[in-house]
Amino acid sequence: MSRLRLVLPSLADKERVMDYREEFIRNNERMDGCATLREANTFEEWYQVFQDTLKEETVRPGFVPATTYLAVDGDEKLIGMIDIRHRLNEYLLNYGGHIGYSVRKSERRQGYATEMLGLALEKCVELGIKEVLVTCNKENVASAKTILSNGGRLEDERSEEEVCIQRYWIHLGEIK
């Protein structure tokens, strides 16, 4: 049984989403899987981007349709965020992948990322995505372990602005 649930953000999530954002900014960390949350000036601005990205006809230039989920625990605490891109553009194929995710620093090292990725793969099945590309920085050993734990197979490594990106494929027909 899962400790987490993936839920779609709503306007009622303003406080917990902005608190999540502040924790990342305070710790000077990247915010993967958050659909431009770091760059948004307000919750409402971020929420509009989230809404626009849900559909092909409203997705903004340079983006692909995607669904961003909040990963919440039984107490409704926001543990992490995960973004599922419905298709890949050239950049995502080379560096970003289908799924991006983050777990707040105060909740790491408890297996939440592995659980979140597993739940996201179930959503990928619902979207009809049969092969999922997940990438990580080669130095992010924890993320590589998360991907491997969910059936990822390393295809290759590619450089992006002096950073080595590992590209893993997860074939959903092979998930146990």
Automatic annotation (TrEMBL):
Pfam families documented for this protein: Acetyltransf_3 (PF13302)
GO molecular function, one term: acyltransferase activity, transferring groups other than amino-acyl groups
Domain N-acetyltransferase: 35-176
InterPro entries: Acyl_CoA_acyltransferase (IPR016181), GNAT_dom (IPR000182)
Gene3D superfamilies per the UniProt record, alphabetical: 3.40.630.30
Protein name: GNAT family N-acetyltransferase
Organism: Holtiella tumoricola
